[in-house]
Design brief:
This protein has helices at about 20-25, 45-55; strands spanning about 5-10, 30, 35-40, 60-65. By secondary structure, the protein is of the alpha+beta class.
Length: about 60
């Protein structure tokens, strides 16, 4: 069985710009602290949209591990 990948947001790096929410609103929201939060477990079927959100983050705060 393949190991599950997990989307992580580095709150220290996140600047709260919301680009990840604009790109993949089903995966990200801005929390009470104004920083990005992951709201859905990673699905390999959505790898393109999640990849766009990772690439679109100007602070490089999102990773897939």
């Amino acid at each position: 069985m393949a190991e599950e990948k997990k989307i992580l947001v580095d709150k220290e790096k996140c600047i709260g710009c919301g680009s990840c929410v604009d790109i993949a609103e089903e995966y990200f929201t801005l929390g009470d602290d104004g920083k990005s939060e992951v709201i859905k477990d990673y699905d390999e079927a959505d790898k393109d949209i999640v990849g766009e959100a990772i690439d679109g983050c100007p602070a490089d705060a999102i990773t897939l591990e």
